[in-house]
Design a protein that fits this description.
Layout (H helix, E strand, L loop, with lengths): L7 E4 L5 H13 L2 E5 L5 H15 L3 H4 L10 E3 L18 E5 L2 E2 L2 E2 L5 H4 L2 H25 L11 H4 L10 E7 L11 E6 L5 E6 L6 E4 L6 E3 L14 E5 L1 H6 L9 E4 L2 H6 L3 E8 L13 H4 L16 H13 L4
Parallel strand pairs: 1-2
Antiparallel strand pairs: 2-12, 3-4, 4-7, 5-6, 7-14, 8-13, 9-12, 9-14, 10-11, 10-13
Length: 330
């Protein structure tokens, strides 16, 4: 961490207690972490972004073969999604495509023909993202010292099994460049917190824009791109705590407000921005009950520890958030 980079860097190549403690510290301080030792190669990340770029360059009719619906799968056109409906009069100026889970090598929900032709690559991307989240969940279980008799270090991972139905989403994002007279006022993704447990974010060099509302300074703080250590491994991946994980841990792990705002240089040049995100959610039927951790138990009357708190399932929580984002009614 430095004055140029407010986000801690944690190396998880060794799944040991030191990495676990560092991860919990970063997750409880800012809620955003740069992860090294992810297992992704530079080649894999480059190929992901190339697939995304080719999709968003297609005509609208081909991209919109599967429009987004209340299941949260499909193509979201410009200004359809509004992540900050309390502030923004219209939706975010971005495009996205949401992939649901892959079961036995096939997506559970329809996808356009373009992606059918690249299905093996998509399945590999999602599987590797979920595997990385599972490693991180194990480290969080170790760092929070979850009761061994209740599941121990695997407590979180056991509630995020890849073969069980969940709200997990692999998302390709495209923010078309726009030249504006007042570029600093252009928000590409409104201020929000993420809905699930954990989010992975892949960024491209020279396409910055992510900002975190810093819990200490109360200022919007840009997150830079960090280069890879070598030409083989991918650059550090940004991981952030999302709402369900924060609720579960009585707020010990922080789900921080963030947004995407094009830097002045990008707005003046009309530069595009691409990003790839994996939103990891628990299985639909998982209850958001208190974590059996002595560290979490010390926090009284907050989050899942709040007295009289209604215990929702992961599916109920997600449905509530999506209804606000898209204006859907269930």
């Amino acid at each position: 961490m430095s004055s140029e980079n407010p986000v801690a860097v944690v190396d998880i190549s060794k799944m040991d207690q030191e990495a676990a403690d560092q991860l919990v510290k970063a997750a409880s301080t800012l809620g955003f972490i740069f992860i090294e030792g992810s297992g992704f190669t530079q080649k894999e990340v480059d190929e992901m972004f190339d697939l995304s770029r080719r999709f968003f360059s297609l005509p609208y009719e081909q991209k919109n073969e599967v429009p987004i619906d209340p299941s949260n799968h499909g193509y979201s056109a410009m200004n359809v999604e509004n992540l900050d409906p309390g502030t923004q009069a219209k939706g975010d100026p971005k495009e996205a495509f949401n992939f649901g889970q892959f079961i036995n090598g096939r997506p559970e929900h329809p996808i356009p023909q373009f992606f059918e032709d690249n299905i093996d690559q998509l399945q590999s991307i999602q599987a590797k993202c979920h595997d990385l989240c599972s490693r991180l969940f194990v480290l969080l279980g170790m760092g929070l010292k979850v009761d061994e008799n209740a599941g121990g270090k695997n407590w979180f991972a056991d509630r995020h099994q890849a073969d069980k139905k969940s709200g997990s989403i692999l998302r390709f994002l495209f923010y078309p460049g726009q030249k504006k007279t007042d570029p600093q006022e252009i928000i590409r993704a409104g201020a929000h917190t993420d809905y699930g447990s954990m989010t992975l974010l892949f960024q491209k060099e020279g396409e910055d824009g992510l900002e975190i509302h810093h819990p200490v300074t109360k200022q919007w703080t840009p997150v830079p791109f960090l280069p890879a250590k070598d030409s083989v491994h991918s650059p550090p991946i940004i991981v952030n705590v999302a709402d369900m994980l924060s609720f579960w841990t009585a707020g010990i792990l922080r789900s921080s407000m963030h947004r995407v705002k094009f830097p002045l240089k990008a707005q003046l040049t009309g530069q595009d921005r691409y990003s790839i995100v994996y939103f990891c959610h628990p299985q639909n039927t998982v209850l958001l009950e208190p974590v059996p951790s002595p560290i979490v138990a010390e926090v009284k009357n907050r989050g899942a520890n709040r007295q009289g708190q209604e215990i929702k399932t992961a599916e109920q929580h997600l449905a509530d958030r999506l209804a606000k984002t898209y204006g859907w009614k269930y």
